[in-house]
Amino acid sequence: MAISTNNIGIGAINIIRMSGKESFNILSEVFSNQKIKNCKSHTIHYGYIVDNNEKIDEVLVSVMFAPKTYTLEDIVEINCHGGYAVTNKILEILLLHGARLAEPGEFTKRAFLNGRINLLEAESVEDLLESQTDNQSILAMNHLTGKTTELITSLREKLVGLLSNIEVNIDYPEYVDELQITKENLTPILTEVKNELEQIIKESKNGELIKKGINVAIIGKPNVGKSSLLNALLEEDKAIVTNISGTTRDSIEGSLIHKGILLNLIDTAGIRDTSDVVEKIGVEKSKEIMKSADITILVLNNNEKITSEEKELLKQLETKNNLVFINKNDLETNLESLKTKLPIILGSTINNEGIEELKNQIINNFGLENLESKKLNYLSNTRQITLAKEALKNINNVIKDNEANIPIDMLTIELKSAWENLGKIIGEYYEDELIDNIFKRFCLGK
Amino acid sequence: MNYDIIVVGGGHAGIEASHIAAFKGHKTLLITMNKKNIGDMPCNPSIGGSAKGIIVREIDALGGLMGKIADISHFQIKMLNNSKGPAVRSLRAQADKVTYPKNMLKVLEETSNLVILEAKVEDLIIKNNEVKGVILADGKEIHSKSVILTTGTYLKANILIGSENTESGPHGEDRSNHLSDNLKKYGLEIQRLKTGTPQRIKSSSIDFSKMQEEKGDDELWTFSCDNKATYNPNEQQKCYLIYTNQNTHKIILDNLEKSAMYGGYVTGIGPRYCPSIEDKLVRFKDKERHQLFLEPESLYYDEWYLQGFSTSMPRDVQEQMVHSLSGLENAIITKYAYAIEYDAINPLQIYPSLENKIIKNLYTAGQINGTSGYEEAAAQGLLAGINASLKLEAKEPLILKRNDAYIGVLIDDLVTKGTKEPYRMLTSRAEYRLLLRHDNADLRLREYAKKVGSITGEQYDYYLNKLEQIKKLEEFLKQNKLKITSDVKKRFMKEKFNIPTTSMSYLDLLKRPEITLKFLNEFTKIPYDKEIQEEVEIMTKYEGYIKKTYKEVEKMAKLEEKQIPSNINYQNVKNLASEARQKLEQIRPLTIAQATRISGVNPSDIAILSVYLKKEYGKDERK
Q1: pLDDT tens string B146-180
Q2: ipTM
Q3: Does the beta-carbon distance from A409 to B273 stay under 8 Å?
Q4: Does residue B205 carry a pLDDT above 90?
Q5: Which of B358, B414, B448, B512 has the maximal Cβ count within 10 Å?
Q6: Whether B175 contacts B168, CB under 8 Å
């Protein structure tokens, strides 16, 4: 299975392509429209990508069965909405359901392997393969800061030390003078690795934000001042600002840099207040937007009482580190005090009050303030983060099984996987590495 | 004189090769320089050990002798790694250096179709790159259809003690002077390897009261799946553990340049896993002490083996070193430690069947292929014997896969990766070690043995019976439930086990890590052999892990099925990277899977090769 994307960018439609015999099964597991199960080849279907019943994105899916496809295998293409966060989320879901990321040029390679491209054509394919192999290693290294390589390397060192120790205990059992790895001393060592790995993954998410910017969504009922807020943030009249409800129909994006962090602003259509049906769509739509954004700002009107739908949105927002901006503090306060844990900024878009504070708060919400004084350790692409998460899963399983008194020979299986997964992140892994390490670290025998 | 198969060398490889060839009905000649050295153990007085013990089980399952003879020739046996899990359990026996060769020679002499000859082989009869027999030192020719070389450390062997360098085989035996030069002449690459052996100490000069005892197990064990244990566990001999000290270390470090290794007198490459004591000190300066073991060599003479003290120091320094050890202050050294250098071939020049790529019908096994250890040698000898026989019978060779046996891992590593140092098996070399267990060696290999005709019908029936018993027991455990009565509750509480809320099948209960079949037998009260119970328990308890490993195997199996025709011309495969092309030409892998394990052959090369095969040889990539 492989997933390909074009360059992920905000605003564009992204296409995720899977190839291989499991593609269709994986799609069926994550696609809301179950009619797809009996569909014909070369057809397009509408529905949602869902994750545990949670709708992630509204998509169009093309299904093409083998052999009339580019790779001669079953192919599924998911047309999803632009935006780094959504596309990545979908990628992550597919990976969790058993897909894996394509190597660069893998679709061509598969076409080649399956005989779609003949050997004469392969002459040029070979160049492609070679250059991509180079790219791969360059890519792997380029996307890592030196610091991260160091961190992953030191985690691998710890694991390989542990593994060689276990292997020496197994292969030289009579040498009791060597440190014996037992149930009791294994968990503390692994917990250390686990904590460090968790830290790296957490910081990696921040790293992603630093690299791609933070996607900021602004929601609120019509005429509450969403577009004005957008303009205030952008300090220019990019969005159409009007006091007529429903003018700002389309998402308009603009970006600004605040304290070194890129903020991508997504304006959203106002929630029209004319009928219940439309209101519901508004709430639904806001929810969708919230999912695709890294942070959502709910704009409330200081001058008006809170509505039931605003209350609902407020509740929804509490699940993530979102923000509330109370606009129009120049007008009379009719808004009751809010029962929320979210940070609240009071201000006025007309008087440009509270805007700086809002920008600061966005960055603070991600712990990205005072960036220059922080150590930045992060993995910067989905492949690396997925591998790190896999390794973490491995470590957690070993800890769990160790506590359940599973013998050490069984534990080494996943311990080795963890070490291999970390190796793949930094592109360092060779088959005899462990054996070489055993001999490097221990000196036993006749 | 004409033979079907000639085996050159009567060590552990030669024994198995000649025995199985004769067993399979081929007229076989075993040539050895000294009949009394057949089955000799020139180094440690033990058979088995971690991973190696499993190899012995595999040899036995395939119809070999090592396990059966070890079972009746040891004076101590124990199961290693019992607490570390079922995948890495392995037997080690202290074998008697007098009894073992004696018992072995007896079996060989009783084997029909097998003739033993005392002579020295110095050349081969080669016609059109095909071996036709051997030429003895006296120029006499003996003809045969195939030849198996199991020459051990005897090819141009040199013994090194300090600056002394003697042309000699182990223990002052004669060496072969010309065979390796002749092999080189025929196109084989020769490499120089090194190994070593520690001192032997006179028993009456040792003060055992200062040493820590190492005993055998109380439980009875056998290597062979056909034998029941016949020894009395209370009559087992003890081994002893001692340690080096600061004084020992000072003596060694002060005299370092006098050793053959550090004095620059050694050219061969020694194994990393069998470092000499001076190596250990130099590489691990901070270690305060090193473990040493004293093991009896035989009940029939009073020499003890000082494991861990291998060295190439001169004799006077060895005296000081030994006397610095606690309990050995007045020790008499009966044999000094020495390093031995010898010629070996490059195993990349042999096929997985162990047949030579350059000379047809020539097979090699054991140290000549770059391995170390009695068990590794015996395993190759057995396979070389089987495959030489199968070829005479015009049948496909027996090639064990990495998920079939340690023997498969051993041979695949040798012929795919080659070796620059004497190769020793380690459990960590086997990626599917969870499948390659002590307990299931017969289950893994007896079908193969039956197919190639290396076991008797009786042995096969015994295996079938075991399979049936396993199935029966599993079925019983699946179908029957443990009712949670107050007595049962009490019993669970006593063991501090969680009490099941409802009645559960015995099989489900067995899946819990803490519950053993022995415990459940208190309720089931059904009689089954220890081996049957062990098998069912392991397969039930570790089902999840075993399944996971099988999945890994399946991935590789698809590639194992894709065979590469033996006549492929890699020059015709366009677009291969030049390093890959060179490696593929040299190693000539039999399957795509083997090709993937060659270093320097990248995934893109594999892709190009696959497409080429599909195009040239049709959809089914078989011969």
Answers
A1: 999 999 999 999 999 988 999 999 888 899 999 99
A2: 0.86
A3: no
A4: yes
A5: B414
A6: yes
Give the residue, A230 or B17, on which the prediction is more confident: B17
Preferred mutation among A137, A171, A177, A412 to probe B, highest tally of B CBs within 10 A: A171
If asked whether residues A351 and A413 sit together in one domain, one would say no
| Count of domains observed in chain A | 3
Give me the pLDDT at residue B527, please: 82
**Which domain range does residue A275 map to?**
214-293+295-365
**Could you say which of A130, A404, A445 has the minimum Cβ distance to residue B275?**
A445
Q: Which ranges of A102-176 does DSSP label H, i.e. alpha helix?
A: 106-113, 119-142, 146-171
CATH of the domain at A33: 3.30.1360.120
Distance CA A332, CA A327 (A): 11
Owner of token pair 């462990």: A434
Give the distance from residue A167's alpha carbon to the nearest chain B alpha carbon, in angstroms.
Answer: 6
Report the candidate in A250, A269, A255 with the shortest Cα–Cα distance to residue A214.
A255
A interface mutation test: which of B604, B610, B620 has the most A CBs within 10 A?
A: B604
CA distances from A101 to B401, B425, B551 (A): 30, 36, 20
- State whether A336 and A264 are in the same domain: yes
Long-range CB contact pairs, A346-349, < 8 A, 24+: A346/A302, A349/A225, A349/A228, A349/A229, A349/A231, A349/A232
| Whether residues A55 and A175 fall in one domain | no
Interface of A with B (CB under 8 A): 109, 112-113, 115, 118-119, 122-123, 126, 129-130, 133, 167, 169-177, 404-410, 413, 430-432, 434-435, 438-439, 443-446
pLDDT at position B237 is 96
Q: Which domains does chain B have, with CATH numbers?
A: 200-340 (2.40.30.260), 457-546 (1.10.10.1800), 562-617 (1.10.150.570)
pLDDT in tens, B450-465: 999 999 999 999 999 9
- Among residues A102, A117, A132, the one where a domain terminates is A102
Q: How many residues does chain B have?
A: 623
User: Does residue A179 share a domain with residue A232?
Assistant: no
Q: Does B545 touch chain A (CB under 8 A)?
A: yes
pTM score: 0.76
User: Among all residues of chain A, which has the CA nearest to that of B196?
Assistant: A446
Let me know whether A262 and A355 are in one domain: yes
